[in-house]
Write a sequence for this structure.
């Protein structure tokens, strides 16, 4: 696979990547970092992880004037796309797609010699996570079960670029959490490869579940205007879940009556408003327990609970074990990976010693 991305006003591409088409489980990731700052006119940062059959692109951009970016992928690939920004106009050769991006949505694209241009507005924070898989690796991930998505499989067999679902669908908390885990992965070498391979497969399963369910389910009809209000409501909850607005307050904030808000939210996001707030709080609690030595009372307070017993009960109901048990499990997992990191370093040192002796 060859990947190239270029700003139309620049002579040189900002990203150029070439990797093998065939997946190699023994191939580790190479890391490439790009940091371009031109005063306040443009800021581009990208962290790219490259392995045989896999490219992970984590890109952020901001421009003071509108820009056009041209991207191309040579050969066949599957692109797991996670869009964290609004108002980008995407024009993809031979692909029917939504005209403008919507924040915190995702889709899966099959690309055969992909060519696209993206119209970037001024002063918009652009944030994309794209996981580009060779067709060989995708086939392995789905265990060659092409009947999983017959229509999508037919377009692949015809080498016809297309999205799996006609419209991108919103992130759910599980997808948001795995994106966080991929972006914050601290492992290196063989352990990193094992970890990211597992996370990519987990993320793909969640994507397929969300996209296939959305395309098959007969939902209540939701007008485009109401759909954008529901997305706005979801964003408000994500920004304020520790002190979430009540249903009447949220209804006024997005100018949508309570009945449409409740029914539409459940239809679009497969959860109630209360259930979504609980999910966000539980995911945040999980992050706090993993990254800090906070006690249960501190985590409960930071997640918006005034009563520790209510928090503990909600945590146990959500995860199946108490917060204290989770901390013990998490500590054990950290020690396990530290042990394997040590073995990996030790094996490299021993190999170097052997080479010197030879």
């Amino acid at each position: 696979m060859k990947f190239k991305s270029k700003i139309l006003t620049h002579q040189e591409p900002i990203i150029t990547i070439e990797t093998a088409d065939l997946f190699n489980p023994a191939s580790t990731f190479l890391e490439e970092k790009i940091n371009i700052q031109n005063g306040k006119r443009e800021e581009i940062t990208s962290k790219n992880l490259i392995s045989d059959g896999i490219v992970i692109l984590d890109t952020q951009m901001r421009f003071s004037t509108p820009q056009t970016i041209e991207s191309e992928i040579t050969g066949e690939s599957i692109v797991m796309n996670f869009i964290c920004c609004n108002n980008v106009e995407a024009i993809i050769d031979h692909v029917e797609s939504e005209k403008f991006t919507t924040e915190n949505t995702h889709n899966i694209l099959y690309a055969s010699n992909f060519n696209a241009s993206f119209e970037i507005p001024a002063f918009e924070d652009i944030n994309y996570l794209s996981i580009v898989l060779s067709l060989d690796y995708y086939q392995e991930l789905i265990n060659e079960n092409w009947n999983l998505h017959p229509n999508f499989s037919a377009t692949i067999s015809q080498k016809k670029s297309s999205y799996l679902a006609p419209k991108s669908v919103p992130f759910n908390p599980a997808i948001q959490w795995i994106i966080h885990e991929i972006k914050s992965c601290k492992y290196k070498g063989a352990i990193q490869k094992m970890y990211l391979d597992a996370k990519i497969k987990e993320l793909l399963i969640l994507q397929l579940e969300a996209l296939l369910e959305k395309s098959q389910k007969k939902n209540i009809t939701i007008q485009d205007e109401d759909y954008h209000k529901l997305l706005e409501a979801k964003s408000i909850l994500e920004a304020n879940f520790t002190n979430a607005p009540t249903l009447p307050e949220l209804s006024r904030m997005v100018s949508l009556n309570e009945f449409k808000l409740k029914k539409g939210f459940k239809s679009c996001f497969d959860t109630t408003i209360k259930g979504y707030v609980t999910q966000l709080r539980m995911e945040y609690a999980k992050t706090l327990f993993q990254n800090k030595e906070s006690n249960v009372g501190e985590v409960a307070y930071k997640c918006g609970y005034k009563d520790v017993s209510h928090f503990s009960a909600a945590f146990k109901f959500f995860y199946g074990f108490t917060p204290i048990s989770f901390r013990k499990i998490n500590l054990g997992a950290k020690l396990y990976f530290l042990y394997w990191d040590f073995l990996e370093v030790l094996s490299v040192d021993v190999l170097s010693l052997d080479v010197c002796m030879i």
Residues 335-358 have pLDDT under 50 and may be disordered. The domain at 2-216 is CATH 2.60.120.10 (Jelly Rolls). The radius of gyration is 22 Å.
